[in-house]
Amino acid sequence: MMIDEIYTGSYKGAEFRIKNSSVAGGRKDIKHEFPNSNTQNIEDLGFKPKAYTINAFISEPNYTQKKDRLLAALEEGGTGLLVHPFFGNIENIVSRTYSLNEDISQIGEANFTMTFDVSDTNGLPTASQSSVSVVQAANKALQDSLDASIVSTYKVSTPDSFIVATQVLARMNTAFREKANLIQQVTDKINGYSGLVSDFSSSILGLTTAPQDLADSIRTLFFTVNGLYASAESTVEVFKGFFGFDDDASESPNVVTSSIIERNQNKAVLKSYMQTASLGYAYQNAVSVTYDTTDDVTAAADLLENQFNKVSRDLDVAQLEPLSNLRRDVQNLFDAIKLTTNQVITVRTPETTARALAYQYYGNDNSGIDIIELNDNPNVSFYAGDIKVLSV
């Protein structure tokens, strides 16, 4: 094989050519063994980030300069970008150890064995702010597409269409007034939001025949709801309240006329807007919730997935594509969140107390209440057999 055909990698911009590499990973765990028992339990502590070992070499031309540059990168400290010949670009990589071998019989060639690990600011994989920003940008793209759907599809040209449209807007007004009535509101924003709802109510007749103004008004209300609550969890709960908007609305007569077609189309686009826009904001806030367990993350993801499956059936490509992108970004971030979230595991224990279990698994009894709640057993003095605990 010619030298130019050998794979090239780099660390912090210092290049090398690869001989071979290996990757180690898997799961972090603790093995629990019990006295006078022939059983054991493997406690899963979550994902173990990959560790990379690379055997590489540097040769002519510019052998000395390349060798010195790689040595400096390996000894500099901190994290950097590892360009791995087989795994691509890997961020947040720290050089752990290296060895350099130079043979007098092979002047002009340096052989390195290098080990690399992932390192974030706290030493654990985390959901970075940049990832949250990606989700926010994806939601904005979705909201833009929904605005465009009203402008391009919504039309009122008959008296019947006008009447039906005003009825739908009245139901929207009720939804914004009632669904957003939760605790933990940011008090200095409540009055502003209430004013927007009142303005929407008084402008329904004018908005009914002005698609762009209608789209702008609905979008402003959703945007304001998004900043109305003190926690991401409360905000998600509010937007979930819009998921079923107009699901129980009466169907139009099964007669094909231009007026009925128009009003059915208007009802459909407004219903789709409400249910899809709320999903977008629920996605955006769900990735900022502090979850107690990985089961909680999974439950949140499943709920959002059900709504996605519901609304995606009726979307055009122009709206489905940004919604699908947002869904993908949120799913990726949920996977990252799970890496640093407690996992509910089942262990087998002889008869003991909730307090003793808390000391055994957490080193103190402060988390005894977690064990009680996980197992739905108020009898704190008796636990035996298969017991749920949190991995930490």
Q: Can you put this structure into words, describing what you see?
A:
The chain is of the alpha+beta class and about 400 residues long. Helices cover about 50% and strands about 25% of the residues. The chain is built from 12 helices and 8 strands. The protein has helices at about 65-75, 130-155, 160-180, 185-200, 205, 210-225, 230-240, 260-285, 295-310, 315-340, 355-360, 370-375, and strands at about 10, 15-35, 40-60, 80-85, 90-100, 110-120, 345-350, 385-390. The strands form 2 sheets. A 6-stranded antiparallel β-barrel has the order 1-2-3-6-5-4.
Number of domains: 3
Order of strands, main sheet, comes to 1-2-3-6-5-4
Shape by Cα distribution? flat
Radius of gyration: 29 Å
Low-confidence stretches: 1-5, 121-128
The percent range for helix content is: 40-55%
Structural class: alpha+beta
Largest beta sheet, briefly? Answer: 6 strands, antiparallel, barrel
Distance between the termini: 49 Å
Task: Name a few traits of the molecule.
disordered N terminus, Elongation Factor Tu (Ef-tu), domain 3, 392 residues, 8 strands, single chain, two-stranded antiparallel sheet
